[in-house]
């Protein structure tokens, strides 16, 4: 043995010592002390220190597109760990980097998206630590169905409707640029994504520009009111009773044309990596619907397949994982239905 940084040779009178510093597993073995006339052997065993976590992972909330660092600290510098997401081992790639610095172990996630949200685990042979990553998706406000101009007879009600996503958008109404104050004649209502303003018993003076302000997005339409003609006795020039609309309003939909759900969604339990299918039946074949998860509009993709067959509307979620579980909703302008998807491992 030669004296060095980890090996010290000491002598104090007749006592000779060999000191091994910061021993490692490879230092185990038989050591022999030799003199010209004698020798003595020492059997050294090294018990490996368990790899425990001094500091565990912490939950993280991040915005979509940001870089996230999940880190923890071991009880010693040497120690192998494995990173997992939702119970599955993670391999480094262009967006995932595993780092080792002294006793620290870290996982760097670049440009995070909704698919990165979930439960992360750093695991050694002796210990583990868990944390949850939540990815906040930017709020996207969209006017799905615009307002349409109306022409009504004096004394009729006029109802303006628009459809706005997501469901919690605050819609403010204006008449000729002035805020609408709800009253007996001005009725403001909301049902799911549908927002409406009803002006009751319209008079010619009520003719105005109607605006729906959805958190900065505007939809505008025009209200025209036709007065009664002299000599009319309860009917219009076409012989129809007064109070009927002269110009058909796209929003005043007859009951038979409303998009209603004949068969609603049901809760689904799917095994991990299997496909999950959510299905509804609507009241007529030309019906338009949209699908949402946790209030976020879903677009067709390799993950989400939207299909139409007659009156059936289907959402298929391919190769489900724990991050796909949650509440799914199917909506039309007039009705909606929702169900819960559970994923079993």
TrEMBL record:
PROSITE patterns hit by this protein: IG_LIKE
Residue ranges annotated for the Ig-like domain, each copy included: 36-134, 138-342
Record has Phosphoprotein as a keyword: yes
Secretion signal, residue range per the UniProt entry: none
Cellular component terms per the entry's GO annotation: cytoplasm
Pfam families on file: I-set
Protein localization: Cytoplasm
Protein's name in the database: Ig-like domain-containing protein
Positions of region (Disordered): 225-247
Organismal lineage: Eukaryota, Metazoa, Chordata, Craniata, Vertebrata
Keyword Phosphoprotein: yes
